Every structure is written in structure tokens, then in C-alpha cells.
Amino acid sequence: MCNKILRKLGRHKTIVNTILFAFVLIGLTSFSLEEKNQEFMGKVVSNFKEYFLTALEEKVYLQTDKPYYSAGENIWFKGYLVNAATLKPQSLSRFVYVELINRMDSVVSRVKIRKDSTGFAGYIKLKPDLPSGDYNLRAYTYWMQNNPTDFFFHKSLYIGNRIDDEVSCRATYDTPANGQVFVNLQFSDSHSQPITEKSIYVLQNGLGVKNRKNTYLSDALGKVKVSIPYEPSSGKTGYLDVYIDDPDLKYHTSIYLPDFSHDFDVQFFPESGVFLNNCIQEVAFKAIGTDGLSEVVSGKVYSNNGDLKFEIVSNDKGMGKFMLSPLPQESYYAIVRSEKGDEKRFDLPQATEEGVALNVNVFGDKVIYGVTDKRKDKSMSLYMLIHTRGVPVLISPLVKLRGQFRQGNLNPGVYAISILDGMGNMQCERLFFSTTANLPLVEMDTDKAYYGRREAVDLSFKIQPLNGGSPAGSYAVSVTDQRLVLKDSLNDNIVSYLLLSSDIKGHIEDPLFYFEGDAIEQSRRLDLLMQTQAWRRYNTTEVAQHRFKMPEYYIEVGQTLSGRVLNILGKPPKKCNVFALGPGIFSATTTDSLGRYQIDGIQFDDSISFILKAQKARRFPGVEIVPDKEVFPSSQTFFTAPQAIPHAFPNDYFEQSKQKYYIDGGMRMIHLDEVKIYGDAQPNDAATNYYSGLADSEIDAEKIEQYAGLSLFDLLSTLPGVQVNGDEVRIRGNQSEPTLFIDGMPEMDLSELRYIQPGDVAKIEVFKGASAAIFGTDGANGVIALSIKRGAVIERTTSVSMTRFSPLGIQKPEQFYVPKYEVQKNKEDPKQDMRTTIYWNPSLMCDSTGILRMSFFTADPANDYTVTLEGITDEGKICHFVGTIKRDEQ
């Protein structure tokens, strides 16, 4: 597998050569290199280099036009695919998969985006009947499946639906008591009137009961009260399937229940992962509720003899820290109280007598470290390794246990300081976040201070990377209604994702929180996160000891069709021809010694079907073609528990989106009962094809019945100009066999006629000479066309040598529509312009001048606009900017 990957990389040598494996040695005041250690350090560096070139890890980030959506809209997105180590947009993958996943871990929509000159841009069309709720937008490349799905891009989205408004169901909850919770469901119609006297069926799922179904009758206020079991210690929330089954009204929704528990958990993390006796160490902690979100807690730390050691309180997203020097023969525990008043006991990790611990403090540009070495056997040397995103920036013998270095030469992001022994075993490790490098400066300029209704806006940006460098790169701009589209406070932007979240395994609540405030506050918050978010992308020991896995998934640089061919005995036939036929595509290959085939060098859009045909030599028995099934990664994603209080999104947004849907010609959603359509039976004749009535000769169903007992080859021999010898068929004047068409589709092999019962055939037609010209090149040797009777099922007596296959193709590009009000007639058009995304452009390219220009027209509502620019330069510099465009009442 590794050799295959390297060969594939060799075909892209110009790209690989731009990803240089360079090491930046930072000035450490307390290190000196010893010649005897060069062999070990060289081996570690070599292993990291091989890992870098073998793994070639990728990151993908999606910029969307808005943080939440309404059913019937498009989710517009721009994908930035970068090398995970350098952050340069030089990754080899040419395709990105984007999925919308619901709480049931079902993929609602999946699209495949091909890279163009500006990156990856696409959309997901939301159906007008999509249920309201929380969704997850996920993106990855095929190659990224070599890592856990935690390192795919994830973004939480709320999608509301006011279009499908025939019935609205609102849920509220009583306080849990006596092992149960009452769920209050209130039903109303599109005019906000209560739906009364209707039978409501409620199916309970995942609540300790197995598909329990109850029936209720809505009261005069449209309400029903549902009792569900509740066990605080079970951790189960579950959901309700709610139905209205009435002749005049059909309705179904799923209600995901919030976490009613006040339970919480607190974890304690000794700095660098090692807790040593008689060693003053920082101990960080993190409190999380059963809903997956942080908890505000306070408490006290005691020794096992009851002595109070410290009082603790969480200050940042459930996190905090304190100092402790464990004593031999003592253990420690904490009594912690949540903000809701619940109190629990948690044991701290047990301290050990021997080991190596690391303390790190970040003060502005300085990183100060201290190592405590309490090993019994100190004969083996220790080494300090500093690395980021799989690239080491320093490795050196640990001569002095105290020292410091400056961050000035470091790029921003997550770094690990690892203490290794001479065997490459990691003794301890401490993460820190470097914030030394600043983002490019962005200046936004508009041609006016204020804009009126349907007025042209000329918008420009000036991008200036700091410390030199070129602004050339790919960018996207979104302009949204500031009143209706609120700031996204829950998800990453391009900076927080590429520098932080993409290198940390596990959910980071509110990642933008760590980039707010002044530099000192950011550094403090990030350092606390580094001590409590213990999972990361890279396993230092595995890389240092060359125990990393070889990739299983390939780099997808083109579209392929692959599979296998088997003979009647289930064995692979040698050098069997395989053909792929699709709209504008005809390609062929042969199978290898294992019966495998692969057709590449093709390009096809989504919703394309192929006919795959395996054609054997005459002396071989029948064959079966089996295309490889498309296998996608597990769709399980992280969702925080639903909240008892509904999402605080502007109601006006969903109402305006609904109005826009209808103004733009959307159809109103009406749920109908089952409809049965009756009609007279149609004659069991053939379907009409484009060549019907143009044949030189034919045999119809009546004549076929007259010749009962004859095979199709026998029937063909009765037609003028057709010569049949066994399975060989020729039309007089041609040296090669004619093309077989079945119901308008070409076949590759006339031997298929053996497996079709004559009684299933409505008509046999023969085209020769000039009449065969309508088939193009397929008619060069004449055509024999079969039309199958309606409803007939062709049963074959051997394996299937032809099949239809519809793989996931490339999404066809679609441009975001921006109305133009350049003439007075359009400006006075009475049709309302209700856009909430005013402008979206994912294809902006910046040259060395750093100037980006664009223009668009304002919408009707006189709300200010939020402008969001994101992008990445060719040198891997990340760009993020948010500005405002002012509106007035004109």
C-alpha cells in the first residue's frame, strides 16, 4: 500500500516538492548538542519525516454563508483544503465530500465537490419538508478516512421550518418527579389556532421502554400531556415519535428530549499527565454536564485524612486549576457542587513515587519550562522534542532541567513539548498554544457610507500579510442581514478551526471564546484548554518509534469505476473485457489476474447512471460483473443534548425565509392521505423507442407466439438478410456482429439473447444499411433491437454480465443569484426582495496587489449588513474579517 501511495505521489512531484520538510531550530538557552546523541535524534527526525511524507494529512474547513437556515433554502459553502502540517492549500486530493446529518445519525444529503481554480464551492439544497431541528454539517476527503472521523470538519447547524406549517407542535417539560417527567405537547395550525379533538399517537424511543405507544386526545387548547419514565442515573434521553392520524390531517414529527438530569462529571489532569509525590504541580480540572456542555462548579480538595487542601472554582467553560504537592501515603478527593446545587465526590489520580513531570508557563513571547526527573534508573538520557502538526521544530538532549525559549520563530497553533528517553518512549508531554504570529491585516472599503433600497454596493478589501509575504490566495465573502442573521457564537471560524479545533480530538465548546479578549486573556484561556483537552491528532511515541500505520485509503485525484468479474464457478476470469457506457462516456478496460477492473480517466456528474458490461471470450462460460459498492464513513457525530428552552433565533428570520420561498415560486406543503388511482389496463405491448417504425424488418408479439418453442436466435434466422450460426449473428454484407439494443439501450454481447425468454419479447426489429444510421457508430454493422413487454421480468439462467450503476458523481455548479436593479423598471418591480443572504461569492482570487473587488445590490428591508471575509493565502496564512455595511430607510 505504501509503495502504491508513493507511486501516486510521484505522479504529482511538482506538488510534493512544494511541501518542504523543514525544521526551525529555536534558540534554547539551556541546551547543548552532544555528538553521541546524534544517532538517536537523527532517527527520531527521520521517523517524523517519513510520517509526514507517508501520512500527508489534510484538513478541510467549510465557510458557510450563514450560521443557521430555513427549510427550502440552500446551504452555500466554500471548502478550504490544506496540508495539515503547513496549512498551505497544496493537498493532493481533488474531491471533498460534504454531508448533512441529523440527530438520528442519518445522512440527509451528501454531495461530492471537485476542486477548481479557486478551491471547492458548492451547496446543499434543503427540502421544504425538512423537519426543524439540529443538524451537523460534515466534510472530508477520501484520504482523510485514514484518521478517525473526529478530525473531519464538523459544524452544528439549526434548521427551522415554517413552510411545512399545517401543524405546529410545541413541547414544554415539567420538573422530573417520582421517576417520571411530563411532556406537554401543544398543537396549532398555520393560523396559530389550537388543533382540538384529534387523536395523537406517541411512540416512546430509547427511554427504557421498547416502542411503547400511547394514544391521547388533544383538548380545547390543543394540548396533550405525555408521561415518560425518568431515571437520573441512566443517562438516557431518547425521543418521541408523534403522529396525528386523522382522515383530514396527517402529521408526524420527532421530538428529541432534553437531558433532565442535573448530573455532572469532573475530571482532574495533573500537568503533563504525571502526578509525582513531593513535587509541586498544577492540577487542572474540567466539569461537564450530561448534555456535553460545561458546568459551573465550586468545591474543596481534601486529603484522605480529611485535611482541607484547596478551594476550587471553575472560571472558564467549566475549567480551573490549582497547585498541589502530593505526599506519600496520602490520596486526595474533591467535594464539588454544581451551580444547580448538586454535590458529588471525585477522586484525584493517585500520585506515584517515580517518573518524569514537566511544568510549562507561557508569559507573552516566553515559554518557561521545568522538568522534574524522579526516575530510579537515570542511566538512559532524556531528550526534549517540540513538534507541531507532525513537524518537529526542535529535538535536543535534556542537559538542564530548567530553561526557556521564545516563540518568535513559531507559527501559530498547537505545540507539544515531549520528554523522550533513549528508546523513544514518551515520559510526559505538555501542550501549549503559540499565538505569536498575527493574522493578515484586512481593510474594507465601500463607495458610500449608507445605502438605500435596491442600491448598488461597490465593496473592496485590501489584504496585507504581516512580516512580508504575498496575499495571493483564495477567498470567499458573505453579506447577510445583520438583524435576522445573528453572530455565530457556537462554531469555529477559519482561524480557530485550522489552528485549534482540527488538532484536538473531542468537542470544544465555543471555540471562539479562546480567541476573544486581549492577548493575555487569550493565552490564559488557551493554556487551560491545553491542559484539559487531553486528546490530540498525533501520537508522539508511535511516530518517534516508527510504529505508525500505513494509510489504507488512497488519495482521490480522479473519478473511477471499479469492481470485479466472476465466472459461473465464482472464479475470476482472465483478461475479461469490461465496458462502461454513460452519457457522453464510453470507456473500456480488462480485468487483472484477480478479476478486478478499474476504469479511471473519466469525469461524471451526480445523478449519472452507467451501464457496466463484462464481455467474455467465446470459449469461456458466462460471467457476472459486480461493481464495488460505495462505502462511506460512519455518520455518527457529536450532538449536545437538546435544550429545554428553544433556540434563540429570530422568529422574523424564519417567517421572512418562508415568505421568500413563496415569492420565489415555492410550492405550499399540503399533506394528503393515501390516494388510489384506477384506470383501464393497457395492452401488454412494447414501449415506444425513438427508432420505432423505422426498421427494415420486424417480428411482433403475435408472430412470436405463433413460433412457440423457438429461441430468439431461431426467430432471427427467419428475418430477411439475417444469418445465424449458433450464437453468431451477422447481417448480410457485414463481417462483424450487429449491435444489440434492448428497450433502447445498447448491449455489448449478442449472447445475452440466450437468457431472454421469447414470451417476454413484444417486438424484434432489424436495421441495416441506411436505416441503421440513426444509431450512429453503433449501427455500423447493423442493429437488432428488442422491445420487452410491459411488466415482464427477464430471468437469466446464468450470472449477470451487465448491470446499471449510479455512483455519487460531482455536483453540478450553481451560482448564487444576485438580482440586478440597474434599470428603473427592475428597481420598481413590486416583487419583494427578501434575501437574508444578500451576497455570496466563494470564488474570489487575490493577486499580489492584495485587492479584492465585488459589487451587488441591496435588498428591500432597511437592515444593516454583516460582511464576513475568510480565506487562505498560497503561503498558508489564514484570513478572517468581519465588517458592517450601513443601510438607511430610502
Give the tags.
890 residues; mainly beta; Immunoglobulin-like; five-stranded mixed beta sheet; 10 helices; 9% helix; disordered N terminus
Can you put this structure into words, describing what you see?
The chain has ten helices and 51 strands. It is mainly β and 890 residues long. Among the domains are: 177-256, Sandwich (Immunoglobulin-like), CATH 2.60.40; 275-347, Macroglobulin (MG2) domain (Immunoglobulin-like), CATH 2.60.40; 356-388 and 411-436, no CATH class; 570-620, no CATH class; 697-789, Beta Complex (Ferric Hydroxamate Uptake Protein, Chain A, domain 1), CATH 2.170.130. Strand 11 (199-205) and strand 12 (212-217) form a beta hairpin. The longest helix has 18 residues, at 38-55. The chain is globular. The relative contact order is 0.14.
Furnish the topology, listing elements before pairings:
Layout: H1 2-10, H2 13-16, H3 38-55, E1 58-64, E2 68-70, E3 74-83, E4 95-102, E5 107-114, E6 120-125, E7 133-140, E8 153-160, E9 168-173, E10 180-188, E11 199-205, E12 212-217, E13 223-229, E14 239-246, E15 249-256, E16 264-270, E17 281-289, E18 297-303, E19 308-313, E20 319-324, E21 332-338, E22 343-347, E23 356-363, E24 366-373, E25 382-388, E26 391-397, E27 402-406, E28 413-421, E29 426-434, E30 441-446, E31 450-451, E32 456-464, E33 473-481, H4 494-499, H5 519-532, H6 540-544, E34 559-567, E35 577-582, E36 585-590, E37 596-602, E38 610-615, E39 623-627, H7 651-663, E40 697-700, H8 701-706, H9 712-716, E41 722-725, E42 728-731, E43 739-742, E44 745-747, E45 761-767, E46 783-788, E47 802-805, H10 824-827, E48 837-846, E49 851-857, E50 865-873, E51 878-887
Parallel strand pairs: 2-8, 31-51, 43-46
Antiparallel strand pairs: 1-3, 3-6, 4-5, 4-7, 7-8, 9-10, 10-13, 11-12, 11-14, 14-15, 16-17, 17-20, 18-19, 18-21, 21-22, 23-24, 24-27, 25-26, 25-28, 28-29, 30-32, 32-49, 33-48, 33-50, 34-37, 34-39, 35-36, 35-38, 38-47, 40-45, 41-42, 43-44, 45-46, 50-51
